Amino acid sequence: MPRGVFERKVVLTGGSTLIVSLPKEWCKQVGIEPGDKLSMILQPDYSLRIMPKREEKRTYETTMTVNGRVSPKAVEREFIARYLLGYDIIRIQFEEGTYEHRAAIKNALSKKLIGVEIIEEDARSMIVQCLAKPSELSVRDAIRRMMRITSSMVNDAVNCIEKPSSDILREIVEREDTVDKFYLFIVRQLKSAALGLYLPSEVGLKDLRESLGYRIVSKSVERVADHAKRVAIYIPKLKCDRICELLIKLGKKSSIMFDEATKSFLELNKSKAHEIVECVEELGAMEALILETVLKIRPEVPQVLATSTVRESLKRVADYSADIAEITINLAAEETR
């Protein structure tokens, strides 16, 4: 029998109650004692997941040592990786010559993470604690807010093609940081549920089967925000001519599709999701028309670069909308099982 697999005989007691004994080794490892309560979670395949149920959840801590042999960006990625793994407290030890590394972590705290604060700090160390709890912001609520901000970024970017505003364009770029915060928070919640740190219901899921769909959709929304930011950066290089008219048309169509895709996901509207997937094919013809127009007028190189970048990003918004719609179809199909 494979390691970690235990067989137990079902025993009938009291005439109607079925009892199965727990493996002694497992009880020792997780600290189960007589009188303790267990949570039993029904899985999609009708198996049961058994977890210790305690009044107070254990605090998960980790320690990382930072030295000057790695880049500040690498240290930032290592720190975020620990945040995503669900650690409540991250202790950081700094060696000499790591001032920039400390600054990189603080930058990540302020721009990329939700509910994470420095609770202790001195010249050689830092203790960071994640204060945000699943009950305060569920995965579903987080993705709804993420979608709302991203939608405003796309709409504002398309409007700025027609009527550029440096203030609005700057705000679009800044809003992308907020979308990233929600994305990383969602990934943290989903990983915590997958690792058993929280029950699926505690992070706003019906079961773990939903986690993959939410992970893919949140990534698609995050990529849409990236492209909206990219459009905002290149808009000042555009010239208001026939090409801009076509870009506005493409952008408005993509914006509507994104809004409809996110709405269909939140409502699990399968028929609307099918419509969105089919509409994406129509945008291919609009994209081809823009390319054809660019070649005809033969603009200067900067104009070609800006036009191609904006065109591609607006088309990507539609593509990611189709991805969201396809996930909606999958989740809706599972709901009817």
Structural features, described:
With 337 residues, the protein is α+β, with helices and mostly antiparallel strands. It has 9 helices and 8 strands. Helix 2 (72-84) packs across helix 3.
Structural class: alpha+beta
What spatial order of strands do you see in the largest sheet?
5-6-8-7
Structurally, the number of domains stands at 3
The residue-averaged pLDDT reads 85
Indicate the percent of residues in helices: 55-70%
β-strand percent reads 5-15%
Characterize the quaternary organization of these chains: single chain
CATH superfamily of the largest domain: Phosphate transport system protein phou homolog 2, domain 2
Query: Judging from the principal axes of the Cα atoms, what is the shape?
Result: flat
CATH class of the largest domain: Mainly Alpha
Low-confidence stretches are: none
**What is the β-strand count?**
8
At a glance:
By secondary structure, the protein is α+β, with helices and mostly antiparallel strands. It has 9 helices and 8 strands. The two termini are 32 Å apart.
Keywords:
337 residues, alpha+beta, Pemi-like Protein 1, Chain: D, Translation Initiation Factor IF3, Methane Monooxygenase Hydroxylase, Chain G, domain 1, four-stranded mixed β-sheet, two-stranded antiparallel ribbon, flat
